[in-house]
Amino acid sequence: MRELNFNEKKGFICDMDGVIYHGNKILPGVAEFIKWLHEEKKEYLFLTNNSGYTPRELQQKLKRMGLEVDESHFYTSALATAAFLKEQAPGCSVYVIGEAGLYNALYDAGITMNDVNPDYVVVGEGKSYSLDTITKATNLVLKGAKLIGANSDVSGPIENGIMPACGALVAPIEIATGKKAYFCGKPNPLMMRTGLRLLNCHSAEAVMVGDRMDTDIISGLESGMSTVLVLSGVSTTETLNTYGYRPGIVLNGVGDIVKKAKGII
Q1: What string of DSSP letters covers 213-248?
Q2: Whole-model pTM?
Q3: Active-site annotation holds for 211
């Protein structure tokens, strides 16, 4: 495998949870990484499978942590889900289990809410998730609504451990109905192609940086991008060895990208 030269690369697509922060705690080396991206005039995009936040909320979250990043640098699985539904069935109706990020993206795409006979049941992360909502979703799917998941992650890192993510939350509906969800977030190539288009980058010029082998690294790999696995989130050196594919490089965190680029490590 050819040595990965970060200075040669034009664009960087980065996951957020476990790469930039854990919960409300910024990770080491992140400020230096963002400063380097700006100084070197790199194109960059934060591509997150978390469907709960709007780009503006993510921008403000980073601002509270002391990082100034424009709203245009964020793309979420909620936006990917809304774009997919708008393309597939313009003006369709949905029953949603999720947060503001998902609702806003769907509204902006001209999609209406419907808990009687929706075209789709759409599931994202959310505090509104309960036995009542999954019972409602289950019966709507059995009546013919198509099941969509914002992303297939089964867990996500938080400050003191992990929390169940969309893949785990949609599983009871899949099991109860016998229907499989279609997931719009990473590693769906539609989301990756959109990310590259927003960066105005060819895949060979871009790097995917993430903490998960099963979403971030596989999506970068299958899109033809260089890949960086950081060990600041979900993956460890042990879990890395359980997969039949490998990232281009394994680093402790995004701060090591800067050190590599500057020849410090």
Answers
A1: IIIIIHHHHHTT-EEEEETTSS--HHHHTTSSS--S
A2: 0.92
A3: no
Per residue in 112-151, pLDDT (tens digit) is: 999 999 999 999 998 889 999 999 999 999 999 999 999 9
Token pair belonging to 236: 């460890």
Q: Catalytic: which of 17, 211, 214, 256?
A: 17
What is the signed CA dihedral for 230, 236, 239, 241, rounded to 10 degrees? 70
- Rounded Cα–Cα distance for residues 49 and 15 (Å): 8
Per the annotation, the verdict on 108 as an active-site residue is: no
- Per-residue b/e over 98-111, b at no fewer than 16 CB within 10 Å? bbebbbbbbeebeb
Distance CA 19, CA 164 (A): 18
HSE on the CB side for 150, CA within 13 Å?
31
Q: Catalytic residue among 15, 211, 214, 216, which?
A: 15
Q: What is the pLDDT of residues 51-81, one digit of tens each?
A: 999 999 999 999 999 999 999 999 999 999 9
CATH numbers and ranges of domains, the chain: 78-183 (3.40.50.1000)
* C-alpha count within 13 angstroms, C-beta hemisphere, residue 236: 3
